[in-house]
Amino acid sequence: MLGIEDNINLILHQISQSHKESNFAKLPIPKLVAVSKKQDDHKILEALKTGQKYFGENRVQEAEQRWSKRLEVYKNLELRLIGPLQTNKVKQALDLFDIIETVDREKLAKEIADKHNGGVKTKQFYIQVNTGCETQKSGVEPAQSDNFINYCKHDLKLPIVGLMCIPPLNEEPSMHFALLKKIAKRNNLKELSMGMSSDYKEAIKFGATSVRIGSLIFGERK
């Protein structure tokens, strides 16, 4: 079984390869965001030692416990919130994360706009699109996405730079990646967070600018 350093190097090689063979080869190589939620601390330390600097967390509380001291030591980390955000955790999240990828409803967007100012850490936001219109999943439905993006960017003046999605488990992911790319293009958004352990190579073919990978780096969570 490969160690974490080997896993990261292998994935980086495959990201580079997939990118080179895609129609987006002239654009920067997609970032590898290591999904560190619920992983043992020693595994995170191993990833940090390899020079991994992009990490994705699902919960504000857990991320705060894991990263607040480490952020003082590792100055060049980029921390992303990739899980749902409750309105009562907005202030905490804005002080902790560089990027919040899961803006998914008006109430949350308003709360973020109220609390967002030059002093907070979060400088960029992505809107989560529920490409499969799944009732159990967060995200704006594709039919509402243009209006919501417009509302966040122009009415609330939020720095929205991209979109993220999580395709349904039982469907071909490529059609969801193609849809997200299309929405991003017509709204002039450059960043696309899409693709996980099982489908990141496919996501890169459709223009992913970052992929979120947990189990392929750290192994299955307990």
Layout of helices and strands, plus pairs?
Elements: H1 4-20, E1 31-35, H2 41-49, E2 54-57, H3 60-67, H4 70-73, E3 78-81, H5 90-96, E4 99-103, H6 106-115, E5 124-128, H7 142-155, E6 160-164, H8 173-186, E7 191-193, H9 200-205, E8 210-213, H10 215-218
Parallel strand pairs: 1-2, 1-8, 2-3, 3-4, 4-5, 5-6, 6-7
Outline of the structure:
By secondary structure, the chain is α/β, with parallel strands linked by helices.
Explain the overall architecture.
The protein is α/β, with parallel strands linked by helices and 222 residues long. It has one domain: Alpha-Beta Barrel (TIM Barrel), CATH 3.20.20.10. The protein is built from 10 helices and 8 strands. It has helices spanning 4-20, 41-49, 60-67, 70-73, 90-96, 106-115, 142-155, 173-186, 200-205, 215-218; strands at 31-35, 54-57, 78-81, 99-103, 124-128, 160-164, 191-193, 210-213. The radius of gyration is 17 Å and the shape is globular.
